[in-house]
Amino acid sequence: MAQTSAPPAKDAELTGPAPSPRAIVRARRRRAAARAWAEYRRNRVGMVGLAILIVFIALAVLAPVLVPSSALDVTQATGVPFSPPSAEYPFGTDESGRSVLALTVWGSRVSLLVGFLATVISVLIGSVVGIVAGHFGRWTDSVLMRVTDWFLVIPFLPLAIVLATVLGPSLANIAFVIGITSWPGTARIVRAQALAVTARPYIERARALGAGDWHLITRHILPNVVPLIFANTVLIVAIAILSETTLAFLGLGDPLRVSWGSMLDAAFSHGAASIGAWWYLVPPGLAILLVVLAFTMCGQALEAVLNPRLRGR
Amino acid sequence: MTVTLLDVRDLEVTYRSRAGDVPAVRGVSLQLDPGQTLGLAGESGCGKSTMAAAILRLLPPDTRTSGSVLLDGEDVLTMRPGRLRAVRWTEAAIVFQGAMHALNPVRRVGVQIAEAIHLHDKLTDEAVDARVGELLEQVGLPARRAASYPHELSGGQRQRVMIAMALACSPRLLIADEPTTALDVMVQAQVLDLLAELRRELGLALLLITHDLSVLASTCERIAVMYAGRVVEEGPAAAVFDEPAHPYTRALSEAFPTIGDRASRKAPHGLGGDPPDPRELPSGCEFHPRCPVAVPICPTTDVQLWPAGPDRRAACVHVRDREPEPSAP
Amino acid sequence: MATPAARSFGLTAANRRIGGKLVGAVLSLAFVLVFNFFLFRVLPGDPAKNLTRNRLVPAEQVQALRESFGLGKPLPQQFAGYVRDTLRGDLGISYKFRRPVSDVIAERIWPTVLLLGLSTVLSTIIGLFIGIRGAWRRGSTFDRGSLAVSLALYAMPEFWLGILLLIAFGVGVGPLPGLFPTGGLSTPGTDLTSLAGVLDVARHLFLPCLTLTLAYLAEYALVMRSSLLDELGEDYLVTARAKGLRDALVLRRHAVPNALLPTTTLIFLNLGFVVSGAITIETVFSWPGLGLLSYEALRTPDYPVLQGVFLLFSAAVIVANVLADLLYPYLDPRVRTG
Asked: What is B6-91+171-276's CATH number, 3.40.47.10, 3.90.226.10, 3.40.50.300, 3.40.50.150?
């Protein structure tokens, strides 16, 4: 007679009234999040990326405390223009005699802010499009996918240049332009997941019970889609920051504010290259490099956590 | 006196992973004479597929192997790479499970079979094409199927292609690793019949690896049962299947209801629990946590294959203790 | 192969697929035209005023501009006129150069083709090679090093790399002199058809081409490595080894060709990225192509030129993608209909 082993008792909540379904779901989600975080912590690459990000975000947030905004004022600049690094100016000076270090610290604010803003716009549009296309299917899906494909095919920079030139240079406009040109990536991923979830049997059952689309989307599709969006978002921020840098370098950024991209534009336009003023060019570029790398590392670590197949790459 | 075709002695295979060493095969010995059939049975994870790959030294680079695998007298594990490549497919060939992924999806099957021939023979293209057609017909497929891609064939047809490919260089030993898994029952029977027929026609030795004991009972002369990387029972197929000596073998054979036998249909027995994690094996007899007849000495006894009847052995203390004196070798 | 009826069915299905792709491409191009058209007419305010807001333009010119837009006519008529003109090759008059946009573009197209063409070819070959080698020898010093370098190159703005290279090799750092020219296509006065002229252009091409090659190969290396790593886990490679195939041949004959399939798709999907690189790099190195033209145009802002370049770049990428879509089934039999 074969033995069967009894499954071990788990989480036996024996005291108090039975928790509501909503509470159970919430508790389950919290546990899943805690597990994901523990898994993420084990990923060395992800932790390094996170550390770098924290440093830069702190830099951006604390900029007014670390460096007085007067350092950005051209009329108050006291340094010799284009002077190499020294004790007084650790990163040297720019074409107006301002400290490059101060500019780099303050530049982080705009670069990161535009990056985040653009990402929010991009992810919002992409998620909505993806969910609607994946859930409602057929005609809606075809039309939305046509539009998505168009944005995917069209080369980013020429489109962004045309849009930015027409809209005019400002922080919000740049964020808008980047957001509106980068949502297709998110849309595709979200759509694939929405399609998969909508096809699952319990959705049909829920519908039979009278669940409307809104309920299905918010209660079933969204929770399944959010982790994916999260991992994807991190990678989008990296791209958004690079895009802001490029647009600012071409002169399409906000002329009143300093960003890493605008620093490179100013440097190059004022001939820093021919003078060999590397100290003006290296810090902003290096900062971008580090931030983008950090976001990429975090994004890859998140993907590995969410998709165990990818671990160990 | 025939020279043993395949002689595996004390084979040990350990996978090295970041989480530590995983011993997949822990001291297995097998013999196969020319023209014989041996069935290797066990649950997934018991190490039988690792065995199959080890015989032709096809394991991934980060594995540690010890022991010896004598193929026609030569040790595969110590051969020089050139000799190994020459021996592969010509002495022994392997048919993998899941032929969907075992065939290159973007090449025609005829080309893949021809590749095997080209590697070991210097034939003209026409001769190779003719041979490919011959092989396909031998496994019951029309010769024109050579122009198909794997995704254009059914599961059963793909399995036949794999068998045809394995026969391309007229090997003396065919290793079939789960050839009938993922096929439906009718097709399973056809593939098994094919293997039996080929064995008769070509005098092949066959090492048939599967988790389905009933398949082995009808196709093989001898059966070896593996558990946790070791052989726990071996003997003539009928005897092992009808009167299993080891509790694990008993559970395996009872797990598959016999068609036509009402009694087994009404009370199918499953074996509770899971196969042990190779990194944390139970002490003594590895089967004792799941064994229905375990006794207190099981966790502390170092089990070996003890004689369990004419030409039979089993690694169970009950078998050992049933024999008051060990029978003369 | 099959019966004539089956054969003709296959032909129709294949034709339908081709037709579908072509229709898609035409739709995309049409949408570019619509986009271009409406961008300036949908904005609030008077388009003519908007376009001349940063410059001092006499009132009569503004009025003439308004008329050239055909703003008096109904919208469908304006659009029809716009489409007709575009199809005839009339892309308007450049504000900055006071010449037809099509002429301006025609002058600047070959330097861009030369630069992009050479960089793409070089970066593809080198990038794929690095990716393959990295995946094959995963975990080795080569792999870890190339991975780090690829990630760094991928994360940096390509024009920053260009400027640094410009300083290092064009201007010279410290005691080291600049080896290459710092900008332009050629030294003025050189006969471009002579051997000396060709070498001169090559010298000027070196740094921008090097920058773009480095920038692109990072992505190709990363994608190829990833694809090949995926492929190396497949069972059919074990079958190939079991047949007696040498490891190097298993890689070359089976793993790499199969890994190239998803890689090719991804590379074509990123053609827009290639084009964007041209704009910034031509700006850094004053390479007189369409990229530099875009930069000059956006400073003015010279909308007809910007729209014309946008149209051209979009059309090029759309066509390339359609070609890739059409050719892919010849590479991957799993995708063929029939």
From this structure: 3.40.50.300
What is d(CA A233, CA A143) in angstroms, rounded to the nearest whole number?
A: 24
3-state SS assignment for residue B80: coil
Residues of B in contact with A8 (CB under 8 A): none
Question: B72 in contact with C at a CB cutoff of 8 Å?
Answer: no
Which residues in chain B land under pLDDT 50?
1, 325-329
Domain assignments of chain B as residue spans, ordered by start: 6-91+171-276, 105-163
Comparing C-alpha atoms, which of C152, C51, B162 is closest to residue A290? C152
Out of C156, C172, C283, the one facing A289 most closely (by C-beta) is C156
Instruction: Give the residue among B83, B313, B39 at the shortest CA–CA distance from B179.
Output: B39
Expressed in angstroms, the distance from the first to the final Cα of chain A is 46
pLDDT at C179: 67
DSSP for A256-305, please give it.
TS--HHHHHHHHHHTTHHHHT-HHHHHHHHHHHHHHHHHHHHHHHHHHHH
Chain A nearest C-alpha distance from C72 (Å): 22
State the number of CA atoms in the 13 A half-sphere of C92 facing the CB.
21
pLDDT at A121: 93
pLDDT of residue B325: 45
Task: Please report all neighbours of C, defined by 3+ CB atom pairs within 8 A.
Answer: A, B
Question: What percentage of chain B's residues is helix, strand, coil (to nearest 5)?
Answer: 40, 25, 40
Q: Which residue has the tokens 């994916």?
A: A228
* Residue (of B166, B169, B137) closest to C239 by Cα position: B166
B76 CB within 8 Å of a chain C CB: no
Give the containing element (helix H, strand E) for C123: helix C101-136
What structural domains does chain A harbor? 36-60+103-310 (1.10.3720.10)
d(CA C338, CA C336): 6
Q: Going by DSSP bridges, is the β-strand pair B63-71/B74-75 parallel, antiparallel, or unpaired?
A: antiparallel
Nearest to C242 among B94, B106, B120 (CB): B94
Dig out the tokens for C232 from the structure.
Answer: 């190396």
Chain B residues lying within 8 Å of A312, measured CB to CB: 18
Residues of chain C with pLDDT under 70: 1-12, 40-58, 61-62, 64-73, 172-179, 189-190, 192, 337-338
Distance CA C108, CA B284 (A): 81
Predicted confidence at residue C53, as pLDDT, reads 59
Spans of chain A, pLDDT less than 70: 1-16, 308-313
B24 membership: H or E segment, kind and range: strand B20-32
Residue A311: what pLDDT? 46
Residue B16's beta-bridge partner residues? B21
**A-contacting residues in C 253-272 (Cβ below 8 Å):** 269, 271-272
Given C235, C258, C331, which is nearest B96 (Cβ)?
C235
Q: Which of C235, C243, C254 sits opposite B119 (nearest CB)?
A: C243
Whether the Cβ atoms of residue A44 and residue A52 lie closer than 8 Å to each other: no
Distance CA B167, CA C318 (A): 49
C-alpha distance from C7 to closest chain B C-alpha (Å) = 16
Model pTM? Answer: 0.82
> Using CA atoms, how far apart are residues C69 and C85, in angstroms rounded to an integer?
12
Is B208:B177 a contact under the CB 8 Å cutoff? no
Compute the distance between CA of residue A263 and CA of residue A94 in angstroms, rounded to an integer: 9
Partners of residue A150 in chain C, C-beta under 8 Å: 28, 31
Instruction: Give this complex's ipTM.
Output: 0.84
Q: What are the tokens at A299?
A: 């994004």
Question: Does residue A239 belong to the interface with chain C, where contact is any CB pair within 8 Å?
Answer: no
Here the tokens at position C292 are: 């530099």
**CA separation, residue C304 to residues A150, A233, B64 (Å):** 22, 35, 69
Q: Which residues of B touch C333 (CB under 8 A)?
A: 106, 149, 151
